Amino acid sequence: MSYIPSSLKERQEMLQTVGVSAMDDLFAVVPSALRIKKLKLPSGKSELEVSQMMHKMAGKNRVFSAIFRGAGAYHHYIPAIVNSVIAKESFLTAYTPYQAEISQGILQSIFEYQTMICELTGMDVSNASIYDGASAAAEAMTMCRERKRDKVLISAAVLPMTIQTVQTYCNGNGMTVELIPQKNGVTDLEALELLLNDRSACVYLQQPNYFGMLEAAEAIGEAAHRAGAKFVMGVNPIAAAILKTPRDCGADIAVGEGQPLGMPLSFGGPYLGFMAATTAMIRRLPGRIVGETVDVEGKRAFVLTLQAREQHIRREKASSNVCSNQALCALTASVYCSAMGPSGLQEAAQQCHAKAHYAAQQISAIPGFALRYQGEFFHEFLTETPCCADAVLAKLAEKDILGGYPVSGGILWCVTEMNSKAQIDALTSALKEVSDTCN
Amino acid sequence: MQLIFERSREGRSCSILPACDVAKTVLPETMRRANAPRLPMVSEIDLSRHYTELEKHVYGVNDGFYPLGSCTMKYNPQIDEEMAHLPGFSGVHPLQPIDTVQGSLEVLATARNILCEITGMDDMTFQPAAGAHGELTSMLMIKAYHHSKGNTKRDKIIVPDAAHGTNPASAAMAGFTVINIASNKKGCVDLDLLRKAVGPDTAGLMLTNPNTVGIFDENILEITRIVHEAGGLNYYDGANLNAIMGIVRPGDMGFDVIHLNLHKSFATPHGGGGPGSGPVGCKAFLAPFLPLYTSSVMSEGTYRFNQPEQSIGSVKAFYGNFLVVVKALTYLLTLGAEGVPEVARNAVLNANYLRVLLSKKYDIAFNDICMHEFVISLARMHQENGVSAMDIAKAILDNGMHPPTMYFPMIVEEALMVEPTETESKETLDKVAEIYLAIYDQAIANPQSLHDAPVTTFVRRLDEVGAARNPRVRYQF
Question: Which of A200, A252, A308, B342 would disulfide-bridge A229, Cβ 3.0–4.6 Å?
Answer without folding.
Answer: A200
